[in-house]
Amino acid sequence: MSPIFEPKEAFTDQFITECQSLLGKSFQDCTNDEYYQVLANMVATISRERGIASKERSRKLQKKKVYYFSLEFLIGPLLDNYLINFGVRDTVADGLKDLGISLDTVEEQECDPGLGNGGLGRLAACFLDSMAHEDIDGYGNGMRYRYGLFHQAIVNGCQVEQTDNWLAKGFPWETRRDSSAVEVVFGGEVVRHEDNNGAYWFSVENGERVRAVPYDVPIVGFGGTKINHLRLWSAEPVEENFDLDAFNAGDYAKANKFRSDVEAISTILYPNDAGEHGRLLRLKQEYLFVSAGLQTIIHSYKKDYGCDWEHFADRVAIHTNDTHPAMCGPELMRLLVDVERLDWDTAWDITTHCISFTNHTVMPEALETWPITTFRTLLPRIYMFIDEINRRFIESLPKDNNWHDIASQTAVLWDGRVRMANLSIVCGHSINGVSAIHTGILKREVFKGFCALTPQKFNNKTNGISHRRFLCEANPALSRVISDVIGNEWLDDAAKLSDLEQYADDSSLHEQLYAARHENKVRLADYIARTTGVVLDPHSVFDVQVKRFHAYKRQLLNVFKILDLYNHILADPSYKPLPTSFIFSGKAAQSYTFAKEVIRLINSLADVINNDPRANEYIRIAFVPNFAISNAQLIYPAADISEQISTAGMEGSGTSNMKLMFNGAITLGTYDGANIEIADLVGVDNIKIFGMHVEDIARLQSEGYMVWDEYHNQHERLGRCIDQLTDGTLARLNGNFESVRDELMINNDQWYVCKDFCAYTDAFQQLRSSIDEVHTWAKMSLLNTARSGYFSSDRTIRDYAEEIWNI
Ligand code: Z57
After folding, report:
1. Within 10 Å of residue 57's Cβ, how many Cβ atoms?
2. The domains spanning 62-76+112-153+162-463+799-804 and 467-724+753-791 adopt the same CATH topology
3. Does ligand 1 have an atom closer than 6 angstroms to the CB of 116?
4. Which residues are within 8 A (CB) of 621 and not within 5 positions of it... i.e. 6 or more apart?
5. Per residue, what are the HEC states of 651-670?
6. Residue 654 alpha carbon to ligand 1 centre in Å
7. Which residue has its alpha carbon closest to ligand 1 atom 9?
8. What is the pLDDT of residues 130-181, one digit of tens each?
9. Which of 623, 555, 540 has its CA nearest to residue 585?
10. Eight-state DSSP code of residue 339
11. Which of 418, 633, 646, 711 could join 474 via S-S bond, C-beta 3.0 to 4.6 A?
């Protein structure tokens, strides 16, 4: 394969020419935004060209194809990612520099596509990167939302949501493929047909037809030869039904209604992370991308292998990310039975061998169910398949004493509702959780009935993250130090990071690590000063909690810790703690009142503390607005302490814990999600675990928890903090926090904030004093990075490939 952008002069010549041909401008006259357009266009062209050879190669090798169905792909900015994976980042940076252009500035022009909410969506994006790296033919299948996750502004301490018009300036990485558009049908009536031999089949008549148009984004594997793609679907009207009469009568809304009703399907990403959706439009989104994706799979299979259905399941794996694509089962059945005319048993055998499913949370409100009446009206034929799948499944249950108990747990249709998780399990051959503890809870509790029936379907796949994005790309300073010591093979194989272990006591390396961290803190402090006006001291300890806002993630516990410190500083002028900056970032779902109040609480506390000269030498708080992939990449590398303080048993895995660990931050966390596996790997000396374990919580629940006991027993400190929620101390921005107090004291502290308060504040003090000394800190930090390799999504994907997808 011919090298890209070599030599450097060839790149600069081409760049100048492209400015002229793409924009009709000489390069000296272009803006940074135009430089971005030109460079992105050059890189996108190479990706498309290289995609041909990559596709040809997989066709020859007849590789198994994996389709990863997800309603969310939080891909973030892509330019730097492409440059790194093509191995041309340095050449391009040097070449642009020769032209007087800064690559960093050019990259800042890129938009940050927010086609996901949080962990689940980012996991899907990391998996695409790793599938390409592992030379797997792995394709993403998702939705091309016209508007991504809202942009978060902070006004008077409160979150204000603004539209994310990410496509405003066009998206250079996508290719619209009209020739691959398909039709998806909603509603209508099911009609039975019969031929002369008594054979019968069904079709849907008079439904609403929608055109699904795919946009492909190339996914380039590290090394630049393997090119997969992410296919995102957009909903469009099948034909132009423009109402000229309405238009002439001046009713433009009516004239365009045909268009807006259909386009609504791909207009917006639902902004709830691990919570309720429950709207009809959401169900339409789910069916649209499932049906369009499966039609494409069958079409491309028939092109390669004709109607060789017998081997379909050996050549195709369909992975469903959470229950959002749960209709893959019945829709694949419909395509095989109604369209391809296979018999039920053959189709069922294929379906159950292709499909696999990941669950990401045990929270009951995230377990999707739909009312049968809604479902049947919108998707009458799919409902018939679900009904039959359910009937046969119930029929197959052992008829013993447990029958009723097992049936009530595992039935797909129950209590007038379609249970999407049960549908996903019944239609697939594998269900996995995302960390060891989470998978255990699925087996023992959430899906106990299924586990009794088919234990072999259950398995764990501990999450991972792309270390190329979150270490190499996000943290060039640390990456340089690492590569100077152990070479750069870790980019390809994260396990190689363990070579750092032998330098754990090397004091000159300690100095370099400190310098790299300091550089990153300065970079972040600059960004925070620019975006919020808050000035942080880069010499202070950076304590970071960045993630979605949710009660179970307990940002409130962190607030109490800081408020308690503040109280201590005011009460005792001789107390001079190690200067610490507390950094928060994250979004709350628009409708999640409690979570939004916690955001306002953080901003109010920040306003109080940052402006109090008695305290602001020692502690400061910054809330970074609009947490997204781009600013996340500035935050992780600057963190000393990684806050992972969810109520034990509640966090599926967590992935910011891994992103921070790769960057050498030390975890202050509960025994929950992947924190447990982090603790196993780094050992007790290099992590701080505190608080109740799942078993403790279970015991407490059976004994009966009383939040007022905590309030009284810890009155001096905790009780004080609780009182301060409503006594005016924090009422600077829009008043007191009665609802937060009520959540604790009236709703009996569902997430055990008060119970863990004491253990948490102690753990924080211990951790902070142990990292006070540079060499102790550097050794711990280094060992965290050295032992993080396991959490590369490359490893996770190899596990999926071997144990689920059978590759
Ligand atoms: C989401 O981001 C997660 C779970 C969900 O059910 C939905 Br919906 C969205 C998160 C979990 O909360 C995290 O613990 C986990 O690390 C992440 O998914 C990726 O598995």
Report:
1. 15
2. yes
3. no
4. 534, 562, 581, 582, 583, 584, 602, 605, 606, 609, 610
5. CCCCCHHHHHHHCCCEEEEE
6. 7
7. 274
8. 999 999 999 999 999 999 999 999 999 999 999 999 999 999 999 999 999 9
9. 623
10. I
11. 633
Pocket probe mutation, ligand 1, options 70, 72, 115, 120, max atoms within 8 Å of Cβ: 120
- Token output for 89: 């980042």
547 is catalytic: yes
Domain 62-76+112-153+162-463+799-804 in CATH 1.10.1530.10? The answer is no
Sort 337 into a burial class: Cβ within 10 Å, 0-12 / 13-18 / 19+.
buried
The answer to whether residue 548 is catalytic is yes
User: Residue 583 in contact with residue 546, Cβ under 8 Å?
Assistant: yes
Q: Which CATH number fits domain 467-724+753-791: 1.10.510.10, 3.40.50.2000, 2.30.40.10, 3.60.10.10?
A: 3.40.50.2000
| 541 vs 640: CA distance, rounded Å | 6
Between the CA of 54 and the centroid of ligand 1 the distance, in Å, is: 32
Token digits of residue 800: 């999926």
Determine the angle formed by the axes of helices 793-803 and 119-133, rounding to 10 degrees: 80
659 catalytically annotated: yes
What was the pLDDT predicted at 258? 83
Burial of 212 (0-12, 13-18, 19+ CB in 10 A): buried
Phi-psi region of 752 (alpha: psi -120 to 50; beta: other; left: phi over 0): left
Using 50, 70 and 90 to split pLDDT, how confident is the model at 255?
A: confident
The pTM score is: 0.98
Task: With residue 357 as reference, give the H or E element that holds it.
Answer: strand 355-358
pLDDT band at 257 (very low <50, low <70, confident <90, very high): confident
Distance in Å, CA 117 to ligand 1 centroid: 9
Half-sphere exposure of 287 (CA within 13 A, CB side): 25
| CA distance linking residue 230 with residue 216, whole number of Å | 6
Both ends of the chain: CA-CA distance in Å? 26
608-623 pLDDT per residue, tens: 999 999 999 999 999 9
| Catalytic annotation present for 448 | no
Q: Pairing mode, if any, of strands 175-176 and 208-220?
A: antiparallel
CA angle 118, 121, 122 (to 5 degrees): 80
Q: Which member of 548, 550, 755, 779 is catalytic?
A: 548
Query: What are phi and psi for residue 112, nearest 5 degrees?
Result: -120, 90
**DSSP-derived 3-state class of residue 726:** coil
What are 574's two structure tokens?
Answer: 């001789």
What residue type is assigned to position 344 of the chain?
W
What would the two tokens of residue 316 be? Answer: 């195709």
Residue type, 701: Q
Distance 652 CA to ligand 1 centre (A): 6
Beta-sheet pairing, 189-194 with 200-205: antiparallel
Q: What is the rounded distance in angstroms from the CA atom of residue 46 to the CA atom of residue 6?
A: 13
Please name which of 601, 667, 646 lies closest in space to residue 750, comparing C-alpha atoms. 646
Q: Choose among 796, 785, 805: nearest CA to 463.
A: 796
Q: How high is the ipTM of this complex?
A: 0.96
654 lines ligand 1 (CB under 6 A): yes
Judge whether 596 counts as a catalytic residue: no
SS3 annotation, 69-99:
ECCCCCCCCCHHHHHHHHCCHHHHHHHHHHC
Q: Give per-residue pLDDT as tens, 703-721.
A: 999 999 999 999 999 999 9
d(CA 147, CA 473): 26
Among protein residues, the one with the nearest Cα to ligand 1's atom 5 is 274
Identity at 660, one-letter amino acid code = L
Ligand 1 pocket check for 360: Cβ under 6 Å: yes
Please say if the pLDDT value at position 506 is more than 80.
yes
Domain residue extents for the chain: 62-76+112-153+162-463+799-804, 467-724+753-791
Distance 28 CA to ligand 1 centre (A): 46
